Automatic annotation (TrEMBL):
It comes from the Archaea. Keywords: Membrane, Transmembrane, Transmembrane helix. It comes from Candidatus Nitrososphaera evergladensis SR1. InterPro entries: WH-like_DNA-bd_sf, WH_DNA-bd_sf. Residues 98-125 are annotated as: Disordered. This is HTH marR-type domain-containing protein. Gene3D superfamilies: Winged helix-like DNA-binding domain superfamily/Winged helix DNA-binding domain. The chain crosses the membrane at residues 13-33. Signal peptide: none annotated.
């Protein structure tokens, strides 16, 4: 449709309508783009806020883990110190006897005491002389009981390696007595000590197994001797 206006101006209505439609479409497109951009910005802000929350949680847990590691390290250091002190106390002699001028009665009792006592270690420091005596028994029956305890400990170690505390619970003795006895067995070569484990574990040696095999035949022959 064509309109004739004054001044010889001709306007095509189809072109006008198309222009209006294009303008309206462009306006709608611009508004839609603005809304989309605002929505994207809000989502981006929300995403950054979530990232901040997650980062704060991670930092808090990291701080707590570091605190726990520090506490565990302190406890481990204290435990190592206690173990070192315990081993030092166990390795110290149990009885320290200062040597004094002997009397006639003590000279008469000396041979009997040496026959039933444990090995005597003499440490000389000029000008004084210090004698370390570890006395386990006072009569012959006590020596047999001590040998029975040693054999029982060796039989326990045949089953599996054990610590000094496990041996103490098994034989029902005090900790000091058990420590001295295990030290004696280690020095005698009947057991070996695993220093790589904490606490130390004791294993039976070939000498200990040989002692057990020697004890078994003598125990089997005992009834025959009584019958004869």
């Amino acid at each position: 449709m064509i309109l004739d206006l004054p001044l010889n101006i001709t306007i095509d209505l189809g072109i006008v309508i198309l222009g209006v439609l294009f303008y309206a479409g462009g306006l709608v497109t611009v508004m839609a783009l603005r809304r989309f951009r605002e929505a994207a910005k809000r989502d981006d802000n929300s995403y950054h806020a979530d990232d901040a929350v997650v980062e704060a949680v991670v930092l808090e847990y990291t701080r707590r883990l570091k605190d726990y590691d520090r506490v565990i390290a302190e406890m481990r250091t204290k435990l190592d110190i206690v173990e070192v002190k315990t081993q030092a106390l166990v390795q110290q002699p149990h009885v320290m006897v200062q040597q004094q001028p002997s009397s006639p009665m003590s000279q008469q009792q000396a041979p009997h005491a040496q026959s039933v006592s444990e090995p005597v270690t003499v440490t000389q420091h000029p000008p004084a002389v210090t004698t370390t005596v570890a006395v386990e028994v006072e009569d012959g029956s006590g020596g047999q009981s001590n040998n029975g305890t040693i054999d029982y400990i060796l039989k326990l170690l045949v089953e599996r390696p054990r610590t000094s505390r496990e041996v103490q619970h098994a034989i029902g003795r005090t900790r000091e007595h058990t420590a001295r006895l295990m030290k004696k067995l280690h020095e005698s070569g009947l057991v070996s000590r695993d220093v790589n484990s904490k606490p130390f574990r004791y294993n039976i040696t070939e000498a200990g197994r040989t002692r057990l095999t020697k004890e078994r035949p003598s125990a089997a022959q005992a009834p025959k001797i009584q019958q004869a």
